[in-house]
Amino acid sequence: MLRFLACLLLMTPVALAQQAAMEVTSDIRLDPARTYGTLIIRKSGVTIDGQGAWLVGAQPDSGIASKDYKGIAILAEGVSDVTLRNVNARGWDTGLVVRQGSRWLIENCNFSDNFHDPDFGWGENGRRGGILLDRVTHSTLLRNRANRVWDGCVLLNSDDNLLVDNDFSHCSNTCLKLWTASRNSIRNNVLSHGIRIAPNEVHARDSTSVLIESGSCFNTLLHNDCTHGGDGIFVRVLNGWCSTDNYFEGNDCSYANNNGVECWAPRNTFVANKANHSSYGFWLGGSDQTRLIRNEASYNGLAAGHHNSPHLPDSGHAGIVFMFGSSSHTLARGNRCVGNNGAGIALIGDQGSQGKKWKAWHWVLQNNRLEDNRWGIYGQYADWIVLAGNSFVHNTVADMQWAEGVTGVTELPAGDAETVSDSRASVQIAGPEVLSVGQRGTWSVPGGEDLSVTWQIDDQPLQQGLKVTQQFDHPGFHRIGVNVVASGQMEPSWRNVYVVEDVPELGTEHSGAGWEITDFHDRVRSDQQVSQATFAAANQSSLVGQQALQVAITPYAGFRVALTWPQDRSLRIPG
pLDDT of 276-310, one tens digit each? Predict the structure, then answer.
């Protein structure tokens, strides 16, 4: 009898995971005295109140490692207007999976202690752990938890959602991941300790508190705790698909193993964030049109703290650094960079080509506090740099260190350095984005004669005035930059211009027939073709010819893809 009882006890965790799934088609309240298996929500418009009940896959004492947990605690596909509250789930591969739904309310749920793999190496290991929202829109996550999991919360192809007061901390991959997820509002969440690292390891395997990638745009992240991660916030562009126009304010990204904020995409704005006590405060490469306003980036790269991957001279680090990628039309205003083991702010063009591929071009550095660093500002291979009202105190090597290839540095008088608190771009350029070869274009800044306006087109001499005119005699891509001073505030702006020639257009003047899509993994052609491409005419977007082609890649393998036309490789170009 005792032997039979012992067998029952050992089988209990497995039996729990194998309980018949409960299908939900109407409002339901769970019994907090019971333990449940999987819930499958089949109907829209229902409310599930767990009342604190547990859905258990594998018990902690089952002997099953967290990386071997199986199953989904709560699954919903194609249902909307659902309220899910007060449910706990542990011991599963994933706590909650919602696919293709809208207007969900998920509140006061706990999806901790599901799939977790702190020993996993580099690379992808699935989207799992706490919460996965796939093609979910206009939904709210409020006061939920997902701790000690692989991914705390994943927004996959999910837009216009609100996440408030959740705790998705202590995760072995990411606390919050956005993949092709746009216009989401993420406020006052605990997203700390997203890290997977062994003792004496350097790079934390790209684990991070917040990961934003693959065309995740126009998101707002406000006042989140993103501390103690591999990175704090990481805007990643591994597959070449940039995430732009995101707004970050009041987030604490300090104590990151690598970078408080790491961003490789253009047109993002960072206001009043903290990025202290990390290897670097802000690492921004390939981040053109970035706005950095009133951030803290102090005490980074210290020997007594995180100091991985030094890249500045003499094993130096930085509070804010733009390096290994382009940085044009950049504003750094009112930032506090104190006590960094290296530069307060560093702007560095392409070192391999000595600035020939790109320079750090068209920068405004205004009212920054630069104290107790080695260099207050460090520049290399840079051009058209405007300084105004910066404060330099006790920088041990130099307040400003201009290394090789720095030209066009201008420092304005202190009286021109006053600023206002507005963090949004306030200057817009009027004028064409596309010109034909030989066509003259005019660009202007709307406003009155009280504006002080300076222009530069590519590397031509600076020009003054409310407008500028230019004719381009050859096809190509051109950058126009402008600095505007009004009421003591300096604002940079920009316009990219394409100059095209009327030539026969190949590959786009049809429905997309003859194109081939190829998956690549680690820059090697994949042995499995997963991604598929669908083409549609985009008549309003063509640069040359009658139409452009818009391509939607669904499904998408997640890495680099190549589009080739014609598929049979029969094209022959004379010369």
Answer: 999 999 999 999 999 999 999 999 999 999 999 99
Within 103-183, strands assigned E span 105-107, 129-137, 140-142, 149-156, 162-164, 171-179
Spatial CB neighbours of 573, under 8 Å, sequence gap ≥ 6: none
Q: Where are the domains of the chain?
A: 1-117, 434-500, 516-564
| pLDDT tens figures, 189-217 | 999 999 999 988 888 888 999 999 999 99
How far apart CA 238 and CA 260 sit, in angstroms, is 19
What residues contact 79, with CB distance under 8 A and at least 6 apart?
41, 42, 43, 44, 46, 101
- Scanning 83-173, the segments in alpha helix (DSSP H) are none
d(C-alpha 403, C-alpha 78), whole Å: 58
**Do the beta carbons of residue 363 and residue 390 sit within 8 Å?**
no
Please state the pTM of the whole predicted model. 0.93
Question: Which SS3 state, helix, strand or coil, does residue 127 take?
Answer: coil
Q: What distance in Å separates the CA atoms of residue 33 and residue 92, rounded to the nearest whole number? A: 20
Q: Could you name the CATH architecture of 434-500?
A: Sandwich (2.60)
- At 535-552, the pLDDT tens digits run 888 877 778 878 888 888
pLDDT band at 502 (very low <50, low <70, confident <90, very high): confident
Do the Cβ atoms of 365 and 385 come closer than 8 Å?
yes
Structure tokens at 190: 């605990």
- Separation between Cα atoms, residue 231 and residue 121, nearest integer Å: 16
* Cα gap 27→42, rounded to integer Å: 11
Helix (H) or strand (E) holding 112: none
Token pair belonging to 126:
């699935």
